[in-house]
Specification:
Length: 415
């Protein structure tokens, strides 16, 4: 799988919300639900590939449950979930930037502190865990017990440095078995360049400095585009999410109609652009990604203006709890699954994976997914749960080193 076709879970978190206040409850609940359901789908896709052998199945003898699973929990829909994460991230992070452009209060300094802390509170532990789990897996177990051979060439320690700089997927490869971490690299740099592109429009920055910042951001993106084209394309989808915060009225006023259009379009795109089509014609990903982004952006836009009736499923407050550790789950799930796959083979023997979607495989799948979720939840108590506290500490330290009263500060901020 190439960098541009791996699935991801972006760091979607409502910070620096517009002056109008917090997100309306139904929209907020919908985004929470989309985050954890999308992450569950991505986890299911990767865990199925590691623990379920579908290759020996024959279409005429495939049970209905397995056929439905393969139709739903597959790469095509997993990729659509990832595109949704990009749109959500643009809406929650880029949208407030657009709302602050004319503000007479500084915000860039706080913005960059918030984004850096949000990313690195999860990325640093995730890279450390990947190193530990992959080292254990490659040292303790024979190569054929897991799938570590598929990641040969990714264990150069220099990749740890490039991953810490969030260059994985952008101009470097990922470290070890943590292929899904590529999207965090994209997300990080979208965070960095988006407000710089808009610097000339920021009320508190003079035009000269704003133009210099915008030029630097443009040169950076052009340089990356010479290496790979998905970076500017993904930025466009991310910016679409930011734009959704701008319109004064929705294109589709009924939430039922918007959700129906989203559901129908999502299924249609998954049928038209399935795994075989992706492999035969990789360029179609741009069509599918654009369609997925537009459908989800339209749903968010409609929900922005909806005042009811709403789906009762959105009343469940568990959506926020489950969404609260999805970034950590995304960042650690693949190396965790790889180690559990190797451990499963050591316990059950090499033949357990030979059957066609055998019961033992589904049992191993269930155990592996459950352990991965539990580990992510436990780790999130020291990562995502601590983000706000670390932000306050980082802001205080920055104020001491670089006081905001300095008139020469081109990235002023308030707290």
């Amino acid at each position: 799988m190439t960098n541009t076709t791996r699935m991801s879970q972006t760091s979607v978190h409502p910070t620096l919300l517009p002056k109008t206040g917090a997100l309306e409850e139904p929209l907020s609940q919908m985004l929470y639900a989309a985050r954890w359901l999308g992450m569950l789908l991505v986890l299911g896709v990767h865990a199925s590939a590691a623990f379920i052998n579908f290759n020996a199945l024959r279409p005429e003898t495939t049970p209905l449950f397995i056929a439905a699973w393969r139709f739903t929990v597959n790469y095509a829909y997993g990729r659509q979930a990832v595109i949704g994460f990009f749109v959500m991230s643009g809406f929650l992070v880029g949208g407030p930037v657009l709302a602050r452009l004319k503000s007479q209060k500084s915000f860039l300094r706080a913005y960059f502190v918030h984004r850096m802390v949000r990313i690195y509170m999860v990325v640093i532990p995730a890279i450390a865990l990947t190193f530990a789990f992959d080292t254990i897996g490659r040292t303790v177990f024979p190569p054929d017990y897991g799938v570590y051979a598929a990641f040969d060439g990714h264990y150069d320690l220099r990749y740890i440095v490039t991953n810490l700089l969030n260059l994985q997927g952008v101009i470097a490869t990922h470290y070890g078995s943590n292929g899904p971490l590529w999207s965090v690299g994209y997300e990080f740099w979208y965070y960095m360049v988006f407000p710089l592109f808009l610097a000339p429009l920021i009320a508190l920055l003079d035009q000269k400095r704003g133009s210099i910042l915008a030029a630097l951001a443009t040169l950076f993106c052009l340089a990356i585009s010479l290496r790979q084209i998905w970076f500017p394309f993904g930025l466009t989808l991310w910016a679409l999410g930011a734009w959704v915060s701008v319109p004064k009225q929705p294109r589709v006023t009924s939430t039922r109609d918007a959700f129906g259009l989203f559901l129908f379009g999502t299924v249609l795109l998954g049928v038209l652009f399935n795994n075989d089509v992706y492999h035969a014609h990789p360029w179609v990903q741009y069509i599918s990604d654009t369609g997925s982004a537009l459908l989800f952006a339209n749903l968010i836009l409609t929900m922005r203006f909806s005042d009811g009736p709403h789906w009762r499923l959105l009343d469940w407050h568990g959506h926020k709890t489950l969404a609260g550790f999805t970034f950590t789950l995304y960042a650690i799930h693949n190396p965790t699954l790889m180690l559990l796959r190797a451990t499963t083979t050591a316990v059950l023997g090499a033949d357990w994976i030979e059957g066609a979607a055998a019961p033992i495989q589904w049992a191993a799948f269930g155990v592996a997914v459950s352990l991965t979720i539990l580990l992510a939840y436990a780790l999130s108590r020291f990562t995502e749960r601590k983000v706000d506290a670390v932000r306050r500490w980082a802001s205080a330290m920055l104020d001491k080193i670089w006081p905001t009263s300095d008139a020469r500060n081109i990235l002023p901020g308030t707290h």
